[in-house]
Amino acid sequence: MKLHRITTAAVAVAATLALAACGGGSQDASSSGGGGFEAEPAEGGTVQVLQNADFSYLDPARGWDGGVNNFYRLVYRQLTTSAPGSAENPTEIVPDLAESLGEVSDDGLTWTYTLKDGLKFDNGDPITSAEVKFGISRAWDPEIGIGSPYLKQVIDAPEDYEGPYKTGDLPTVETPDEKTIVFHLKEPFPEFDAVLSQVNATPFPEGSGEGDEFIHEIIASGPYKLAEYVPGSTIKLERNENWDAATDEVRAAKPDGWEFTIGLDPATIDERLIAGQGADVNAISGTVQPATLPRLQTPQLQDRTLQLPGICTTYMGLNTTKEPLDDVRVRQAISYAIDRNAIVNASGGTQLGEPSTTILPSSVAGHKDFDLYPSADGTGDVEAAQALLDEAGLSDGFTLTLDIRAQESMQAQGEAVQQALERIGITVELNLIDTATYYETIGTPSQQHDAAITGWCPDWASSAATFIPPLFDGRNIYEKGNSNLAQLNDEDVNTRIDEIKAMTDIDAANVQWGDLDEEIVGLAPVVPLMVAKTVSLPGENVTGLYSSANAATGGIDYVGVGLKDPEKG
């Protein structure tokens, strides 16, 4: 998340944007003063997570953003998954429920997986190929399957297939026996192992999860199960006694439980973590508020300050179906007028972000440096912007509505956009949307306004294919769960996407993705704003803190987190 793939305060990036990628090498989280964040956790205790907003959904077929994807990693498993943040290459896709990565046919259209022995749900029922197939088929349900789009885009399902509840069996996924599952693809896709690592590839018992069943309940396959959920307030996880550590080389699962406290004011979270009293010594949270940064300079707090690299792009999507944004000249004028330095300052300054002129961040394979809308000081070229509006017959400007999350830092970003565009006569009206429902709202075209500030992180790090197609393929604009916020449907862009996706040399394809990034920015369906960075302040008793580009959108990978002293707090 993803937009997703980018979002709220449970993980670091979430508090500043939504929806992961870096080249190989361990991505251990580093502190300013050497806080020992990578020490081996002890067995036991409860990790506390303090966050402002609730998760989007407990159901992984629905949720797909940086705030919740990391949580899913504690309670759900898939055939494959991202390596733990502590791994030598944490961006690698590794087997999870499957014994190995997929065996692919010579034509690249058929992928076969074999399940490990001893897999069970939290109720003790076995996880077989039938449950894996059923869970995956839920992605096609028009109401439930609003999360990650890759399964639907890659697997060769019948055109009228609408999931197991409405249509029934998915014939292009075969289960010849209880341990074998075979997938038939629309076309060769060499990164299919990564597709199956997405959260909506989670198995569930056949027949479960219809309607709103998984809104407040879950059926766990990971090391923890749901003990208590009070929406907007608390989530408590306890050990899943039917999880077998011998089958799981990814999740250390050292704590006995996790407790998420939801709905806290961000400033209150910072105060609690600075004080570090009681159970808060065992707490982690997202990025600190900009006003808190100067207070972290004391030696005691510097030793606990966690700095994580930016891997997600914050951008403003422009709805190309709305007048006058359907005119490329108007979108280009907005691109020229934006003051990226003001956006960064509104987000907390250079400690929390850096300006971006590209869709692909530098941490993603395929990134290409370019700036199609330059200005001498980085604050926007008002003259060039006004000339384009004049050419479009909009010399007096116009009014547009900008969707933003109802958070202080997000509103500050919106106000920076207001001030920048006011210089060319464009009046920006801010529409505040609750964080927990933000991505569902802006991902529903019928509810979209003219523009929205959001973010995107790669869903797996080795390829730009998780950036460009989800955001700009015009054939994948959905009534719900839509990630192409610009609703761009450009024939040339669609053709180039197909050509690059067909390439079997991923490195060569990434070069082409970088070129296509530049071509798309020339059309200005979105305005890249910044790459968000993270400064966090974990409790002094928390350890096992490693960054994960894939699993945690650049934030802390929960699977390795634990406590130094389980009796403390």
TrEMBL record:
Transmembrane segments: none
UniProt keyword Signal present: yes
Pfam families: SBP_bac_5 (PF00496)
Entry GO CC: ATP-binding cassette (ABC) transporter complex; periplasmic space
Gene Ontology MF term list: peptide transmembrane transporter activity
UniProt keyword annotations, A-Z: Signal
Signal peptide residues on this chain, from the entry's feature table: 1-20
Solute-binding protein family domain sequence ranges: 92-476
GO biological process, one term: peptide transport
Protein name: Peptide/nickel transport system substrate-binding protein
Species for this entry: Promicromonospora sukumoe
Lineage: Bacteria, Bacillati, Actinomycetota, Actinomycetes, Micrococcales
